[in-house]
Amino acid sequence: MKRVKLIVAYDGTNYAGWQQQPNAVTVEQKLNEALTDLLGEKIEVIGASRTDAGVHSLGNVAVFDTDTRIPAEKISYALNQRLPDDIVVQDSCEVDADFHPRYCDSIKTYEYRILNRKFPMPEHQRNTYFVHHKLDVDQMKAASSYLVGPHDFKSFCSIHAQVKSTVRTIYSIRVSKEEDIISIRISGSGFLYNMVRIIAGTLIMVGSGRIKPEQMPQILAAKDRQKAGPTAPAQGLTMIGIEYL
Amino acid sequence: MKRVKLIVAYDGTNYAGWQQQPNAVTVEQKLNEALTDLLGEKIEVIGASRTDAGVHSLGNVAVFDTDTRIPAEKISYALNQRLPDDIVVQDSCEVDADFHPRYCDSIKTYEYRILNRKFPMPEHQRNTYFVHHKLDVDQMKAASSYLVGPHDFKSFCSIHAQVKSTVRTIYSIRVSKEEDIISIRISGSGFLYNMVRIIAGTLIMVGSGRIKPEQMPQILAAKDRQKAGPTAPAQGLTMIGIEYL
């Protein structure tokens, strides 16, 4: 028996998110089907980030246990033959039996992309959120700096989420603009439900002049979801990768 | 009566190319339908670049004549409401009645994109061509320089094309690499059928070590399609834009 770790990239457009669920096609389900078919054993992966419907990934992590004699490094190649084109395993390797993708300490990185121009551009349609009024990137940068560090992010968490603590640590936020695309790249110890999309939605309000950067401490202190901006749409969000410590 | 010029961006994945044809959905057809619906007159656009099935565009050009009272600048907004998400008009303006998108002198720019890494990446699947063996970009750059200038590009033209002359002028070719994407950007007075894709296919052979840069003059001189590399797949090609002189 060995435990195998996969790095999984996907275009989330056609999936109802990561997590297996009845009456919907999910990334986890496609992986389980392909692995079960490849290895001839019933496989159920454990995913690191259970991304929502429409969210993309360059490097989500999943593990599973198997008795196969296929070397772990070879699994990626054989698995990609059995997966649809919009899910591609980037790497497979053996890990310790006690490695767990959610419970081991890690730095997770997400990126939210905004296409900011007069008209949408088809080539960016699937993985950006289109905003046509001009956003002030400097104001968005200024606002983002208030979020770095350990904070209670209750104001940035969807209200139906049930978690013991809403304290999380953001290690870095980088807001940058290249041509017409504004990227918000966030690394942290972990994220609450919809937290990155609510941060993105709030920074878009800042870029639009509807929230001032100096209001960010109050929004955090309020611990009230109503004080932050809207949840930005799923298609702008990409899970970049996870570094285990 | 006025003549209106459109700048048209599209994701070519779901279209049988630009040009209207029976039993297939094309970009030209979608534009004609949307314009006819918007303006209440039968409209047939004239396109600058009749891109092939699967080829994308950031800035193809089309014109049409109309009696509408809608100001030319407003047409883009109303038209985008009637077009599918993968076709977006970027600009509309009035032009002289004798302006013709194909017969007026212009500099056309295309880009061919190659995703060069171990495994495909879903976010780039629709507008790159995936090559997994490592390409030598310096060799590709060296080879591309031989193509700049006026040349008889008969070796780089699909054999069923019927044109009077196969001489064309390439003003510039820039081969560059950013992360895993190699871009070949070519500007010229005009291009023969499949010319950019055959140049891309030939430069991929060079990057693979199967053709030497110094062989390029011979390939040009042969005036023989068999001497150049294969026609690279359509999905890697994007029509960037057209500058009228």
UniProtKB/TrEMBL annotation, chains A, B:
GO biological process: tRNA pseudouridine synthesis
Annotated Pseudouridine synthase I TruA alpha/beta domain residues: 7-103, 143-244
Classification via PANTHER family: PSEUDOURIDYLATE SYNTHASE, TRNA PSEUDOURIDINE SYNTHASE-LIKE 1
Record-linked CDD domains: PseudoU_synth_EcTruA
Pfam families in the cross-refs: PseudoU_synth_1
Species for this entry: Eubacterium oxidoreducens
Enzyme class: isomerase
Reaction catalyzed: uridine(38/39/40) in tRNA = pseudouridine(38/39/40) in tRNA
Protein known as: tRNA pseudouridine synthase A
Enzyme Commission code: 5.4.99.12
NCBIfam families for the chain: hisT_truA
Taxonomy, superkingdom: Bacteria
UniProt xrefs under SUPFAM superfamilies: Pseudouridine synthase
Family indicated by similarity: Belongs to the tRNA pseudouridine synthase TruA family.
Molecular function GO terms recorded: RNA binding; tRNA pseudouridine(38-40) synthase activity
Residues annotated for substrate binding in this entry: 110
Keywords, sorted A to Z: Isomerase, tRNA processing
Complexes and interactors: Homodimer.
Annotated active site: 52 (nucleophile)
